Amino acid sequence: ETGVTQSPTHLIKTRGQQVTLRCSSQSGHNTVSWYQQALGQGPQFIFQYYREEENGRGNFPPRFSGLQFPNYSSELNVNALELDDSALYLCASSLGTGGSYEQYFGPGTRLTVT
Amino acid sequence: QKEVEQNSGPLSVPEGAIASLNCTYSDRGSQSFFWYRQYSGKSPELIMSIYSNGDKEDGRFTAQLNKASQYVSLLIRDSQPSDSATYLCAVWLIGGYQKVTFGTGTKLQVIP
């Protein structure tokens, strides 16, 4: 069984640029959730994708957008990067969208905005 | 009031002791609760999930849920230095759209 994978591992961008982060879900999982984790904080929910549709969104501006593909992999896109976007971006996959489905995290992408 | 609250710690316990980690949540309708372990610089790793009142045991870990008091805890028996990490409590909140909300985590230090 293949776990959740994310790419790239680390990324350095300049303020105002755009970035795309990628996630491959665990084998058999159809739901992907994205989180932002700032240093010393818990993960903050960005949004969730289920069957290629956004299934819920946290308190993040529209410049955070995403996609899910037919193979359930997903992308997180962030436009007009700001310094505060520097964080660990985590992808989690699950068997479904309900609360009884456990989420399993990938290794994360560390984004630094300068 | 934060949706999910944890004491940030650090919580220091001697090796071999029981570590007790606590979490409270605000949404009385919450039904699913999770504990994750996160080592420094790594991603969260699921330890336990609990859905009904009472205790759930898995090896050295016991999760306890009390929905009336809106309280969930994690006990780690025979604590080992390798248990030193930040422990995140996560709650699936029913209100509005579906999402899992995390606390800020409790840092546990197991002293050899």
Describe the structure.
The complex is a heterodimer of chains A (about 110) and B (about 110). Helix content of chain A is about 0%, strand content about 50%. Chain A has about 110 residues and is mainly beta. Chain A has strands spanning about 5, 10-15, 20-25, 30-35, 45-50, 55, 65-70, 75-80, 85-95, 105, 110-114. Chain A contains no helices and 11 strands. In chain A, strands 2, 4, 5, 6, 9, 10 and 11 form a 7-stranded mixed beta sheet that branches. Chain B is built from no helices and 11 strands. In chain B, strands 2, 4, 5, 9, 10 and 11 form a 6-stranded mixed beta sheet that branches. In chain B, strands 1-3-8-7-6 form a 5-stranded antiparallel beta sheet, with no helix packed on it. In chain B, about 0% of the residues lie in helices and about 55% in strands. Chain B has strands at about 5, 10-15, 20-25, 30-40, 45-50, 55-60, 60-65, 70-75, 85-95, 100, 105-110. Chain B starts with a strand and ends with a strand. With about 110 residues, chain B is mainly β. In chain B, a hairpin with a 4-residue loop joins strand 7 and strand 8 (about 70-75). Chains A and B meet through strand 5, strand 6 and strand 10 of A and strand 4, strand 5, strand 9 and strand 10 of B.
